[in-house]
Amino acid sequence: MIPIGVLVSGRGSNLQAILRAVQRGYIRGAGVTVVISNRPAVRALEIARRANVPTMVIESAQFSGSRQEYDALLVDALERHGITGEGGLVLLAGFDRILSPFFVLHFRNRVMNIHPALLPSFTGLHAQEQALDYGVKIAGCTVHLVSPEVDAGPVIVQKSVRVREDDTPETLAARILREEHKAYPEAVKLFVEGRLKVDGRKVRVASRK
Ligand code: GRF
């Protein structure tokens, strides 16, 4: 069983999609062993508890140490739940902190993130609004491996949506979110099945045996 740790900060809808995919047997041979939030009392923690998944809060707001010291607490907590640099998977699911190179290299090619835009376009915050303001006709989401540079790691899965004339940031974000809930389980499934081969910037997806 591949242990999965999910890092969250808020709503938790992507966490829910992953938990559901495991529960329904779409993702086999893996399970979420811990959900860690940097903020207390967020909905994602409630979702984890309802699914009987252990939760932890490692508050970042009042943390006085360095970024790397905070990340060392995350590494410790993940390792205690079986997620190591040699085995396991870390999913960022709305986690609102940038991870240090120390963390990323510790779990080299074992950390995924989901971003609500078709990378490399519209990195950073409010990606859906950026896309709308730019006037693109196709928007979407990206699941990628996390590298030390933000929103820049190798792409695993992308899904697109058409931008409508009457879209607002909210309506576009809602349509992209529905695709996120398909894209993230798909990427995790490919990882768990051992079908992702990282080759420089590219992730090659091996066909099913
Ligand atoms: C999603 O839009 C995701 O792409 C972005 O943060 C949001 C998290 O939403 N990284 P949720 O907490 O999974 O509902």
List keywords for this structure.
Rossmann fold; globular; 6 helices; binds 5-O-phosphono-beta-D-ribofuranosylamine; 7-stranded mixed sheet; 209 residues; alpha/beta
What can you tell me about this protein's structure?
- The structure is a single chain.
- The chain is α/β, with parallel strands linked by helices and 209 residues long.
- The protein folds into two domains: 1-108, Formyl transferase, N-terminal domain (Rossmann fold), CATH 3.40.50.170; 114-209, Rossmann fold (3-Layer(aba) Sandwich), CATH 3.40.50.170.
- Helix content is 34%, strand content 25%.
- It contains six helices and nine strands.
- It has a seven-stranded mixed β-sheet, sandwiched between helices. Strands 8-9 form a two-stranded antiparallel ribbon.
- Helix 1 runs parallel beside helix 6 (169-192).
- 5-O-phosphono-beta-D-ribofuranosylamine is lined by residues 10-14, 44, 93-94, 114-116, 177, 180.
Characterize the biggest β-sheet.
7 strands, mixed
Helicity range of the residues? 25-40%
Ligand inventory reads: 5-O-phosphono-beta-D-ribofuranosylamine
The radius of gyration over CA amounts to 16 Å
The CATH architecture term of the largest domain is: 3-Layer(aba) Sandwich
The order of strands across the largest sheet is 3-2-1-4-5-6-7
Low-pLDDT sequence parts: none
Instruction: Determine the number of helices (DSSP H or I, runs of at least 4 residues).
Output: 6
Question: How does the helix and strand content classify structurally?
Answer: alpha/beta
Report the end-to-end length measured between terminal Cα atoms. 19 Å
- Cα shape: globular
What is the fold named in CATH at topology level of the largest domain? Rossmann fold
Mean pLDDT, all residues: 97
Instruction: Name the CATH superfamily classification of the largest domain.
Output: Formyl transferase, N-terminal domain
